[in-house]
Amino acid sequence: MNFKSFFNVLIRAILTGFAIGIGGTVFLSCESKVLGAFLFGTGLFVILTFGFYLYTGKVGYIVVNRLSYAGQVCIIWVGNFIGTFLMAYLILNTRISGIAEKAAAMCVTKVNDGPLSIFILAFFCGILMFIAADGWKNIENQVARTLAVFLPVVVFILSGFEHCIANMFYFSIAQAWDAHSLLWLLVMTVGNAAGGMFIPFCRIAFVD
């Protein structure tokens, strides 16, 4: 990968972090969890519409790409982290910074969970995010295509599944980073990857 390609991937990934941060902000701002979960999907809709790069939307395709693609996915993860961190920093310097309290309560629940639970919850979120990304890519009907984006997001949030990029934003705005939260983020990252690869792997191994 040359510098131009690297920079292109990184910028698209950072912009994705901002989009997820917007989704996280509106979710934290809503009193209704259902409404917040639906509006969070705006972030993913923006990402897919503008061709930004989201780790959980890309990681599943490692199964069907060359090894070099995995390196690109790692760059995307870093870019997503940068974008969510910057978005959180900006929100903390506004009058709506009080949403950080809600994020902090969520983060306490997450870090007090066990690693197996975190992995499993992240695994199912990974499946749903692959469904959303692949549905947007392959469904031709515009209504069904849009539903394929929003419904998986609503389901993963209301189910309590773990999305590593969304959690980058929550941990950042809650200012809850430490060695433990970073380790749990890595567990979520692996779980999301396993879930994202599950359907593509089944397609290759058992379906096609």
What string gives the helices and strands in order? Answer: HHHHHHHHH
- Straight-line distance between termini: 31 Å
Number of strands: 0
Structural class: mainly alpha
Radius of gyration: 16 Å
The residue ranges in which pLDDT falls below 50 over 5 or more consecutive positions are none
Q: What are the main properties of this structure?
A:
single chain; 208 residues; 9 helices; 81% helix
Task: Please give a structural write-up.
This protein is mainly α. The chain is 81% helix and 0% strand. The protein is built from nine helices and no strands. Helix 4 packs parallel to helix 8. It is globular and about 50 Å long. 44% of the residues are buried. The mean pLDDT is 96.
Compose a concise summary of this entry:
This protein is mainly alpha-helical.
Helix and strand arrangement:
Elements: H1 3-29, H2 33-50, H3 55-58, H4 67-91, H5 99-111, H6 115-138, H7 142-159, H8 164-173, H9 179-207
